[in-house]
Amino acid sequence: MDWAEKPYWLNLPIQQLGQLLATFAGTNLSEAKLSLQSETSLIMPAAPPPPEPRQPSRVRVTGELARRQLLTEFQLASWPHNDILTNTVIGVVVKADGQVLSADLVSGSGLVSADQQALNGASAARFNSVETSGPGRNENPLNELMWGTLIFEWRTLPLPMTNAPER
Fold first, then answer.
1. What is the pairing mode between strands 79-80 and 156-157?
2. Which of 80, 107, 113, 133 has the smallest set of CB atoms within 10 Å of its CB?
3. CATH top-level class of 58-157
4. What does 38-104 look like in DSSP terms, one character per residue?
5. So where are the chain's domains?
């Protein structure tokens, strides 16, 4: 767009430059004086406290399936890795008798062996059974299925320090 009007500059008296900053500094005095020189010589900072021991790897059940008791006790590994592992999430479908019908990887941890252990464990998991017989029994077998997720929260161990050169 062609603009035909000439620029119009706003006037600002030179006496007002920095006046607002001077007013602010004058009304907000602080007793603390900062020094460029340290009062103490350079010292080594105190070592941080050792990290608290983390919980071991564990499994949580979520979704509709959380209403049923997980009967399987998992013996989960702690994984040495150079980065923190995220949770492995496994989607499961469980039959009325408590057996897992289907177990699928929803999201991985970043370590294939941890994800494989989660898949194997989820496939072998057992839940308490629910009543499927009697007068209130539903004739549709799909209504006896329950969906949920098993979330494997991995404990990550630091890799051992070595003197070997990096490759």
1. parallel
2. 133
3. alpha beta
4. -SS---PPPPPPPPPPPPPPEEEEEGGGGGSPB-PPP-PPPEE-SS----EEEEEEE-TTSBEEEEE
5. 58-157
